[in-house]
Amino acid sequence: LKVWQMGSEKEDVFDLPFAGHSIAQNPSRLAELAVFSRWGDQAALVDLKDKKNIRLIKEEKNRRFFGHGIFSHDGKKLYTSQTDDTTKTGEIVVRDVASLKVISRFSVYGRFPYELQFAGSEMIVAVSCDFKDAVNKKVSDPHFAEESSLTYIDSSTGKFVKRIKLDKENCLMHFQMGTDGWVVGVGQANDRDTSEKKSYAISISPSGKVKTLDIPDDFRGYFYGETLGIAMLEKKSLAYVTNRSTKLILIWNYKTQELVKYFYIPDRPKAIATTSDLKQVVVAETKTKSFLFVDSKTMEITGRAKGNELSGYGAHMIRLKDFS
Predict the structure, then answer these.
(1) Which DSSP symbol is given to 235?
(2) Is the model's pLDDT at 212 over the cut of 90?
(3) Closest-CA residue to 254 (of 212, 282, 294, 299)
(4) Which of 287, 317, 318 is nearest to 304 (CA)?
């Protein structure tokens, strides 16, 4: 885990015994981060003020983390998206932050849960579709579905609330929700042979209407692979999205579905986030292990900053609230 201070050369590195996929900051204790493995059996709680204070979470046999998690609003519980290898189904696991003990396990009513966020008392989960090489086991629950979806679950009881179904070819993985209720979601094609038909990036209005976002004609024939990062700039209704396979940073108006601009980045862009003042969008580049800056007003690349050996490797990064 690397913590980088904007505008300075200061970098703090925290050694973990696993590769982290995404990060969450505890809202009640800002110096505490949760880091989650993907397809792995470990997660960790990291104290940013004490590098020796790393608390590991180890899952039991046949259960794995799926790369994402969030803290409860009061910071006392940790919710993680996971898979049960025995049943081949997804679950949300709720743990007590103080003791790390499992409080409950909720079904996601689908196969592979990725990103999850709160919407009031409900939890929204990006449930991806079943890839062709996966082994299915039939599930009798009437709310269970094989299709990719945004699934709403009661965060207290784990009861099914509703589902927004998506195209059967779109394996949704990541999404961001604005304060006005708009959702931008990105994934990848279930079958690469079909990837030229759609962008696999969507916007969902507060009423639940799903629209596919446009992609450049020049890239339509090979727009494939996992789209990782999303950064929303709500005042302009813009979403900045990275796709490492096509080496693109795309800027969409998620309310009109219009492609506003795109950049071809040979160094394969991955993680993305906005600065605290929203004046810049920061993108991690894989090969050069550096950070690229885009001015949010002009939508032009304004510079790069060299990172250390870890920069660019992570799938996700977040803007931290001040924890000093």
Answers:
(1) G
(2) no
(3) 212
(4) 287
In 3D, which of 144, 141, 139, 138 has the Cα closest to residue 113? 144
Confidence of residue 305 (pLDDT cuts 50, 70, 90): confident
pLDDT in tens, 119-166: 988 999 999 876 554 556 778 899 998 888 999 999 999 999 999 988
Q: Strands of 201-204's sheet, edge to edge?
A: 170-177, 183-189, 201-204, 210-212
Contact predicate 103/121, CB 8 Å = no
Q: Which of 256, 257, 254, 228 is nearest to 241 (CA)?
A: 228
**CA 281, CA 110: separation in Å to the nearest integer?**
33
Burial of 204 (0-12, 13-18, 19+ CB in 10 A): buried
User: Closest by alpha carbon to 71, among 96, 47, 46?
Assistant: 96
CA 284 distance to own-chain centroid:
15
* Model confidence, pTM: 0.93
- Comparing CA positions, the residue from 283, 262, 300 lying closest to residue 292 is 283
Provide the Cα torsion 145, 158, 152, 275; round to 10°: -120
Tokens 């990064």 appear where? 317
The alpha-helical segments, DSSP class H, found in the chain are none
- To the nearest 10°, the Cα dihedral for 292, 198, 118, 63? -90
